[in-house]
Structure formats: structure tokens, C-alpha cells
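3.2 Worked example (two chains)
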Amino acid sequence: MFSFFKKKATPSETPAQEPAGPVITPAQDPASAAVDAPSPAPAEPAGAMAWLRKSFGAGAGEPAPAAPEPTAKPLPLGSARQHWVERLKTGLKKTGTSIATVFTGTQINDALYEELEDALLMADTGVRATQHLLDDLKRRVKETKTTEPAAVKGLLADALADLLRPLEKPLVIGEHTPTVIMVAGVNGAGKTTSIGKLTKHLADHGQSVLLAAADTFRAAAREQLGVWATRNTVEIISQEGGDPAAVSFDAVTAGRARGRDVVLVDTAGRLPTQLHLMQELSKIRRVIAKADAGAPHEVLLVIDGNTGQNALAQVRAFDDALQLTGLVVTKLDGTAKGGVLAAIAQERPVPVYFIGVGERVEDLETFNAREFAQALLA
């Protein structure tokens, strides 16, 4: 499975000689590389090299070879990743079905493009992204001299993948110690649950995590995060009724003192229209910077994929207030509005680090443009 973060190895942790081997990175398009099952390897000493081998298999950590040219046909994915793609297809089925019905006709004409425009708009792709996709699709149809409507769907998947590709970016852990991640979002978007899932992934990959329960306004928010802390066996900094900025400051300070790899700061849910609350989020960011110059190193926004164009409005508002570095898109399963990622890519291309299609821990995975486009139009 593709790992969703990278940790830099220090010279002291890197052996002088390592056998050559493939390096699989999160940003690499799985359509252009096969994930081979790693062969048994001798025990490695503790450190970054052992972590890299655990995450990527034997040979990880060496200089990466030149990226291969994209192949005409996608190579097979690893079984775990393939299982995830199947869940993604199931989650996006409502959106995909409404678009796929457009290509059941027998002719490529203006009527087909008009129906496709309606379907894309209904999927909350947005006016600008819809027009971009239609123009790009018509160009591809003309260049390839495609005459079958069913083949046009494949060209649309290519156009959508190209539009979404700027959103691909791996979450990097290890450039700072600790890496401070501030997480924001509106109430009900799945923010605290996403933090718990991310904590699980980090802990499973050998990262020491400290949680900051800076959502001091919502009843039971501290308890909910505490349950995740207990489940993942990580520490948590919290204060009943405390000031959110003060809790964040204490957590970052504690993370530095205890040598933690990651400090995850859970902030209270905010509506972009509540300006005084948005200003308080900005205050939390400033206070975190006082505890650790340069922090927060990542500012993530959790958005609900069911909210469609409202999610785009949230991205704009939170980006203006906090300078977002990444998104977590949740609840894509069962929604007919999965096209909102195209609108985000066209109008506010903040990287999408993770997408979620369910409540289970394994239902949160890294975002890949081609996987998403193919799953949407399957």
C-alpha cells in the first residue's frame, strides 16, 4: 500500500551500502507503477531506514530512479490498494451512475454534450470546472477521432484526472520535530474522527503522536478525542473549559519537550460566516507559532463531500483565514456530489491529502487523481 507520508533519514541512520530497489512514493500515479510484494529481508536496526522498509518494502531509502514514462494501460495495483479502489468505486457509485448514463446513446453530438453538462453540474462539479472539462473533452474527441459514445467516457476520465492532478501531494512528516498539524472544519464534517483515523495511521507507521484537544467549546469533544487517544495509545493534552489557544500552546511545547514526531491540534468546528470564531482560529495559529517558530507546519481543513458547492465555499473562507496546506474530504460514500473535487481543483486548488468513504479506519486513504477519476466514471 502506498504510504501517505515520508520521513527523512539522517546520515547516521542510513547504511553506507544498500542494494538497489524500487521506491514507491505517495504522489506516484499507481497507473504508471506496479506495487510488488517485498521479498523477505534481514532485520534492520531501529531508525528511519527500518521505518522506510516497513512502509515501502526492501530497497526503500535509496535514490529513486528516473520516473518511468506513463504506459497506455495501467499496471496492476497492490491488493490492499486495489481493495481500497473498489470501496471508492462503490462510494462514488451514485455520482458515477448519473454521469455514465449520458454515454449510453449511439451518437456523439450536441445533445450528448448538453446532457453531460447537466450531469456534471448536478454532481456539483461547478460551472467553471464543467466548462473546462467539456472544452477539454471536445478537443480530445477531435484529436482521437473518436466515434463511439462509450469511448468518450474514457476520454472524460483522462480529462478529469488531468484536472485533478494538481491536488495530488503527499503529507510529509519528519522535516520538523515535532511536525505540528492544525486541523479545522465545520461542525459535522467528521473533523475529530478524521484526526483519530490519521492518528491511527501515524502510530501504526512508528510515529509518536501527541493530541491537543483544543476544541473546548463542543460538549464531549474532549472526551471523543480522548477515546481516540486511548484506542491508539497516544498522549493527549486537554483542559476542561480551557482557552483553545492556551491548550494548543501547551501541546506544542509538550511535544517539543517529549520529542514527539507529530502534534495534532483539534480545533472547534467553525462556520465561515462566524467571523469572530474564524478570528479565534487565526489566533490559535499565531499562538502555535509562538510555541514553535514556523509552526503549524500543516493546516488541514476537513470537508464533507456531501455538501457539494458549500464545501468549495468553506475552502475559500478557511484558506483566506488560515492559509490551508491540505484538505481531508470525508463522507464521499453514498453522495451524488462527488464532482466537487473538480470545482476545488479549478477554483481553489488546495492539495487533497486524504479522502474518506466510510467510518472505518481503513476507509481513509491518500488521494490519487487517476484512481478517483476512474472510480467516479466506472
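3.2.1 Second chain
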Amino acid sequence: MHESQGPVSFKDVAVDFTQEEWQQLDPVEKTTYRDVMLENYSHLVSVGYDSTKPNVIVKLEQGEEPWVAEGDFPCQSCPGCDLDLACRP
């Protein structure tokens, strides 16, 4: 049996795109991305994920494009960084 490494966060299961990357996706890929991201978030909430709703999920729910600006990716090392905020030390 594997040892637990702690709770799963949204950024563990999320994929982000820059505007340029997003524009290269075809409509079916964009729809699939939206469906998978919303489903992943829903599953996390159903198992007790308790955090502010990530901005990418808010955008997807409102039918907006979810890409992030170049340089706005959250850092991987700061506690509390999530996909809805760029790291601001």
C-alpha cells in the first residue's frame, strides 16, 4: 500500500493554457477541457475540498475563456498558491 502524501489540491489535477495555447485548441478540445476541469473540481468538492473556488472554474462556469496571461502561472513552491492567483511574494 502507498503512503499518503497529503490531500490533493486543485492544482494537482488542473491544466492551464496561455492565450496562445488556448487559441490552438479546436472547439471539441475546448469543450472537453471545460467538461473535464468542471468534473475534476466537482469530484474534489465531493470529497471535502474546501477552498476558494479557483478563478479558472468561475470562468468556465460563466462560459469565458480560461487561459491565463503569460507569467501569471502560480508558482509551485509557495503554500497557498492556487490557479486563481499568480504568486506575489
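3.3 Remarks
The helical segments are 10-13, 19-23, 27-46, 55-61.
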